[in-house]
Structures are given as structure tokens and as C-alpha cells.
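User: I'll paste a sequence; please echo it back and then give the predicted structure.

Assistant: Echoing your sequence first, then the prediction.
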Amino acid sequence: MKRRNGSANLIRTGDGEGKSLTRMGASFMRAGVALVMSGVMLSAAVPAQRVFALNFEPIEKPKEGLQIEDTGKKAKEKSETGNGTINVEPIETPSGASDGGSNTDSSGSTGTSDGVTNGGTAGTSDGVTNGGTAGTSDGAANGGSTGTSDGAANGGSAGTSDGAANGGSAGTSDGSTAHSSAKKKKGNFVNEPIMQGIYADSIDLSGMTADQADQAIAAYIESVGNTQITMTSDIGNIVTTGWELGFSGTGEDIGYEAARYGRCGNIVSRYKAEADLAHGGKVFDVTWSFDRNSISDTIANAAATINVPAVNAGLVRTADGFSVTPGSNGSEVNVDESANTLYAAITDPNWAGEALTLPLAVDVVEPVGKEEDLSKVTDVLGAFTTRYTSSGAARCANIANGCKLVSGSTVYPGEEFSVLEHLTPFSEENGYELAGSYINGEVVDSLGGGICQVSTTLYNAVLRAEMEVTERHNHSMIVNYVDPSDDAAIAESSGKDFKFRNNLEYPVYIDGYTADKTITFTLFGCETRDPGRSVDFESVVLSETDPGTQILLDGQMAVGTYTRAGVHKGYTAELWKIVNENGNETRTQVNSSSYKAVPATVRLGVLNADAGAYSMLAAAASTGDSATAIAAAQSVAAGIVLPVPTVAAEAAGGDSAAQGGAAQATSGAGDSQSNTASSGEAQSSDADQGSPEESVG
């Protein structure tokens, strides 16, 4: 015989009469012990010819020692005496099984219109045999007996003459089954109202269906995600929600389990469940979690808006030297400690998802700079000057503005200084004007044009103070105010910056000023170098590229006019540091640089030119000689048209164009070429031709 979980033992009888099999109950009551189920009191002493049937569905196997070993003899005696029997039906029985249950898929046949057989034939006109004999003329024996006539017993008894057998087929033609003997599915209880006293966390599920309970739980989880959590401090508050802290929750299957609670199991477990509900209720836990990294990130991002930075002590240069300005403490959120506090609160089993207010951990940040150290800043560590005598008013204004933004800064030991951060943004509001600059290898007007002369001058002062340079870029084309490799370009659009770190023992003060079209930076600190130590720098050009000359005829320029753009030679160069200390000289390479070659460009106007003038200018352009081309333009302007002699091209690779084109914007004369003297100041002489100094390109 097949054995199913929760079924009683089935033992074939030995006398062979009727081959009856009796299903015995999964539990029994000792004599004299009263058992209450469905309002019926059973006693060990049952009057003769009275038949009682109890139907219940265990979900657990009977405890050890409670199984009843049936024999054919005992079954026969119970049948003859009419003693009540307990029929046990398991909660999970495969569909179609023929173990005392009536199922149209099993091989049984109906004995009469009122009886049901399941693997047997009718014992009487109304009785049903299924491994057993009928207890009465109308009763059906299937491990139990019917309470009234016409009922079919299949794991239980019918309540009325037309009642349906629970777990089996109808006892009469009018009966209906409550549910099949197939394996119970989730839908068994979804429409049953949940018993009183059942909760999901703090949600009272009493009277709800399983689906309604699931909806209530989902809304509860949503509310926890939206719960406002506030962390407070003297410097400000951080307000967030569960969702921002990486909240996730689940209450899967709670609705179904709540609907089943108290309705499944053996008689003892059901009784215990009802007793628990009466005395304290049943609480199902809704589980949730938070992401630890999300908590830290949320606090860190919010803290950045409320942190109060410390104000470092500083220096102010006066006519008598320097005065010290005291600093002030700052306040900063301790992210790790605050995150630990928050995580502990929202993962506490006693927290039910309500709004929280917690303390925010804040640390005091002391300012950098001691008066004792700042008072030692008296010595010149390095200085450098460059000139911009040929620059226009806008470029001069930009250089003066940039110098002012950098000057007055104190750089503490270990601190890195970014020139770009101090000079930006390049806007009118920040004091800048339009002036020539290098952008992508071309000369254009831009706000802040000329600002690179500020960074270049400071770069040379830093080198002489022997501080650590952490970022430096050369210009795309050569500049005329320092030697090759002496420059330091900055560009907001491409992220080029000049940075240095104070690797000295004491603070360094940056002092800058402009006067008479010169800019000077001086770095003050506490001199600790050997008095016999001297430092110098040498620019070494490795190669030069002659850019040549291009001469273009411009149909948008009036005949007889011309423009000339400055030439830029191409270079590769290196900068070397030369240290002489008590007669011992060492050389160290500082950087290497490469600059693009840009040809000289002469444009000759040919707008409204007659044939003779046009031919003369075209012939002059074909020579590739800028002097010849300019002379021809001047002659045409004076009304003189002469043959132009053929001369060798001005430079190899120079070319000409005999067609008009759009006029190219021209710039004023460039600044002078600088030569660094031993004092560190750049000496210069004006150049005839040049280009605007680079600013932000």
C-alpha cells in the first residue's frame, strides 16, 4: 500500500472476510479523556449502535507513539459494535490516488445512485465498500462512517443527508465536494477571511483575504521606503528617506500564510493556534534591508553642503613686513560614525518603520597655521619678472587681474596650489576682457587672453624657490616673453593647469604685482638652504623648424591693402636646472617641450583690382617673398603698376595663392623675446614681428 505524509497505517486484515481495510486516525484519545472538535464532545464510552465521525486534515505526521496499528480483527469489531472511528485525511494527496478517497480518475465505480465506490463494489443497495464494510445500511465504510444516511465518508462525515464528503466525492447525486483530494494549492484559502488577532508587523490583517493582506503589506513597505529620517547637528540637518538609503522590503506569501493560519494542521495544532490568537495574537514579520554603501554616500553628499571649513591663519604683507591673521575652527560631519548610528537605528528589530530623528556626528576641524611658524616667513625664496610692453590694453588688464587673484595666498607645508583654481572662471564678472590667445593652434580673441603670462611668471619663481612642480604644460606655439621650455600654459577648456606643492618646512607666501607692463612674483618663506648654494636655469633648444611663408590673394580686401601675421618657428627644447653648491655643480633636466611651426601669412587685397593690378599682385605672390608681395601692394595703392621681378622663394615650402579668400583676422605686434639674466628678471627687446601671447589655449 502507498503511504502518504500524515496518513494512518493501513494493514490488511487477516480473516479475509470482505478484504476490509480500515484507516485508523493519526491520533487517539485515551479512555475518559474528552476531545472537543467542531462542538462535538467525544468520550471513550460511546453507547452501542451510535456512530460518530470526525474529519480533520493534518499537515504534520503524527507524533511518535500516537500511530494506531490496525488489525482486521479490530476493524471488524469496530464495525460490528458501531464504535466511532477517526478518519485521517492528509493535506497533500496526489490527484487520482485510491486510498479510501473518491476520485473520478481512480478506477472505482459507483455501487448505487447513493453510494460511491473507489476501487470496490457496493456492499448493499445504498452502502459503499472501499476496503471496508458498511457500518449501517446507508453508511459508507472508508476508514470511517457517515453521520446520517446517504452521506459518503472519505476522510470525513457528511453533515446532512445530501452533504458533501470533505476530500471526496458527493455522497448523493445532490452532494458537492468541498475540495479535491489532489495536492492543495495556494488558492485553497485566498478568499477565506483571516482570523482575528493576526498581524504583519503592526498591520492588523483580521478579516482580510490573502490578496487584501498582500496589498496592505505592499503599501506598508512603500510607506517605510518613504519614511523621513532626519539627522540633526549644530551646523545643519540631513533629511533623507528609506529609498535614498537603499531600502528594500518583502512580505511575500504572508497573506497566504495568514489565511491558512489556524485552518491547517492536526487537531492539536489548530487548537493551539486558536489559543495563541486568543491570548496574544500571531505576528508575521515583514523583512527589509538597507544598503550600507548608500547610507554612507547619502550622508557624505549631504554633509558637503553643511560642513563649515576651517579658516587657516594667514599672512598680510605690509610696509613693515608681515602680520599674522588668526584662523578659526571648522566643523565637519563624521560620515562613518553617522552612518553607523543610522544603520543601527533602521536595522533595530524594534523599529517599525516610523519617522526617525537621530544625532549627526560632527568633528571639529582645527585651522592650519601656527603664529610661530608664520612669523618666520621673512626671506625671499624665489622671484621672477616678465614684460609685455607691446600688449594692448585688454591683455594688460587680464594680466593685472590674474596677478591680483593669485597674490596674497599662503601655501602651507604639504599643500598643493592650483593656479587654474585661483584664476577661473574666465568671465567679465571675474574681471577679464577679450584679448588674443592660442586655441587649438590658432590665435583668437577670448576672455582672459594673456593670462598664461601670469602662470608662466609664477612657474619660474617656483622653480627658483625649489618647490615641487606637480603639473605643467607648454604652449602649443612658442611665446615671446620667455625662452623655450620656460613657459607654463593653462587652459580651462582642456584642463591644463599649473600646480605646485610646498615641500618645504615652513609656509610660503605668494606676493605678486604689475607695473609698467611687467609682472613680478616673489615667494617668501623661511630660508633653510645653504648660503653657498645657487640655482640657475638653462633653456636648451634641440631643433628648429622654419615654417616658411604663405602669400594669399584676398578678394574681400580692397586692392592695394595687405595684412601680415607673425611667424612661429617650431621648436623642441629642454629646461635644465643648474645647482652650484660650494663649488660643486650639478645639472638636472626639468622638462621637455615641443612647439608647432606656423608659417608667416601675408594677404594681398584684390577687391575691384583691374587686370594690370591683379596680374602684378599675383606675380608678386608667386615669388613667395613677403617683402616683394608687400612692395607690390604698396605700389598698387600708389597707382603704380610695374613688372615684378622673379625671385627665389623666401623659404622652402613657401607657397602662394592666386585666388581670393575670406580675410583672416590679424593681430597686433607680438611681445618681445625674453632672455633671463642672472638676477632672474627677463630682459627683452622689441621684435618687429610676433603674435599675441597665449592665454587659455
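The two ends are 93 Å apart (CA to CA). Residues 1-185, 648-697 have pLDDT under 50 and may be disordered.
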